[in-house]
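ok so I'm stuck.
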Amino acid sequence: MDASIRTVGDAPDNALMESRIGLYETELTKHHHPWCGLADVEPATADWVGRFNNQRLHAAIGAILPHEHEASYYAQHQPQPVAAATV
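replied:
not stuck anymore, here's the structure
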């Protein structure tokens, strides 16, 4: 990602992160309160990230699971074997 024309750290530079934080807040923290402390938040966050990365269909990649998209990508981009030199 390219830096914005403003100073580094402005909202345009952080837009992707801000949208991810907003999604996290909407899906997890606002619906599961009150939190008693980090001991409650850390495992819930790990579960959310695991579901987001492994079980959620992502529209940007064709409404498939991320690990299916990754497997498909690598299946199409296998390195070609090096041809043996002929003498």
